[in-house]
Amino acid sequence: MISSDDYAIAAEDLGVRYNLRFTRKSTVRGSFASLLARRKPERFWALRHVSVQVQHGESLAVIGPNGAGKSTFLQVLAGIMRPTEGTVDIRGQVSGLLGLGVGFDADLSGAENILLGGAFLGLDGPRIRELLPEIINFADLGQFIDAPLKTYSSGMRARLGFSIATAVDPDILLLDEVLATGDASFRAKSKARVIGLVRSAKAVVLVTHDMEWVREYCNRAMLIDKGKVIKEGSPDEVTKLHLARMQEAAARRTEELTAKGLDPVMLPKKGDRRMKRQAGTSDPPSASP
Amino acid sequence: MSQGPAAVSLRHAADGDSPLALLRQGISDILSRRRLVRYLVQADMKKRGSDTFLGNLWWVLDPLLQMAVYVILVSVIRSRSAPDFPLFILAALLPWKWYQSVVNDATSAVVSKDKLIRQIAFPKLVLPVSAASAGVVGFLWGMVPLGLLMLFFLDRIQPIMLVWIPIIAAVQFVFTMGSAILVSAANVFFRDLGKAIGHGLRLWWFLSPGLYSLQDVRATALVQDYPIIGTLVGFNPFAVLFEAYRGVIYGGADGVSPPHPPDVVSLLFLLAGSVALLAIAVVLFKRVEPEFAKVL
């Protein structure tokens, strides 16, 4: 099935299933209760049947609405999460900046966090010390580099995180919503660095809501929704489809609400347990093509 | 993580690895991240020292103050205690504080790093292992108050017997490490463990011969009537450890006989049990590790 041998990433029929029985802050009592009730464990697929290849030198944008499975996809590529089904083949060293405010220890200084971060990423001692001046230089935090991380603003944390993640000169770089951080000058600098990495035949996979960036700097885009690939292709086509779908969804919601006689501006409360259950059951595992 | 440009890694879907393979993975996780464990221990030490006024002095004060509480509790309120009671207690209190602090730290070791776990891939086993390693540093600090107290009871001490302390501590280290790994993983799935463990530990301390000797327990009417209880009490790992520590530091439980070497057979049994516990803990930890990023 794999057509080209020169890929950096090959995902085959990737699926990640969450078991809602063990989501946040489960307690022994809760587990006993569900055991007694003999409920089947509630499961839902955050990703399913995702197959994609990324070649060296390519920059793939992953777009989609909130909760579509974009971050889960990056977590699988980064090795943070093991797929429930399918395989991922990664060729090369992966480095990623997944999520904002990456910090390793809030009580340690920025410089100490670089050393600790390098150890977490699995770099050996001499290599980190060799990279240290460059990381400090790129993060450009001035005297704050010796201040504890807890005194940093979120923008400063993101700058430090970006500098660490990209300094290791990875073969594959994963970025999750991090392009829009920092002030204008750092944003320009980080854009330049990502473009540089793409040019030097490194593969980049990024999750973003910045469609302009996708059209301008990515050579491919993938739209996912409810864990499934909707469309994969040129950034222009895919972003167009995404925007159209977003508008459609917004229009449908307004319609539904007005039909119920509700004011469309008053949106229902999100995030309660009932909503979560619905998400689990309305997404049957048997949704194979 | 794979290193170098030519590195190739293939991640399959969750396939059942054999326990032996998981154990091997766990060992290589730790060996390959020795430096990370060292950094985490150093960071831990730095934090403990930095946010209090007296800083590292607390390492010394803490056991001494707690010992004072028990001395008052037992000798004044109950008005009967072994001779040279402070030394009697501290010989058991120091190893207990080591175990207690490690297990407490281990409950939050994985859970508190939830953000990091969802952001980068690293062997999670380093978290409980560094918590257990940091405990060793605390125990070493505990030797300072012990040394100070010994100065008051010089006639009791037999320096050659103190050589046993690191040997007994090594057995305890294996047991502590196994407990830390188990607890850190279990707390990810059952958050009430963090609450239960404080009470469980306190109960365990009072059920262990820390404030009293194993001989005292065996002399009680209950054990006279039901000898099985006396046997069960002896199976408590901390009965073995406390008796061993106290034997080499303080001496016989009668309060008169001089320090003596520990019961090597029970120590060896405990070591075997602890190694088994550690192996089981590593296998279970590695088995549930891939779920951490989903559950946290």
Would you give an account of this structure?
The complex is a heterodimer of chains A (289) and B (296). A 6-stranded mixed sheet of chain A has the order 5-6-7-3-8-9, sandwiched between helices. Chain A is of the alpha/beta class. Chain A is globular and about 60 Å long. Chain A is 40% helix and 22% strand. Chain A has a domain at 1-25 and 41-92 and 217-249 and 278-289: Rossmann fold (3-Layer(aba) Sandwich), CATH 3.40.50.300. Chain B has one domain (19-295). Chain B is built from 14 helices and 1 strand.
Q: What is the radius of gyration of chain A computed over CA atoms, rounded to a whole number of angstroms?
A: 21 Å
CATH homolog superfamily of the domain at 1-25 and 41-92 and 217-249 and 278-289 in chain A = P-loop containing nucleotide triphosphate hydrolases
Radius of gyration of chain B: 21 Å
Structural class of the helix and strand makeup of chain B? mainly alpha
Computed structural class of chain A: alpha/beta
Q: Give the largest interface pair and sizes.
A: A-B, 52 and 43 residues
Strand content of chain B: under 5%
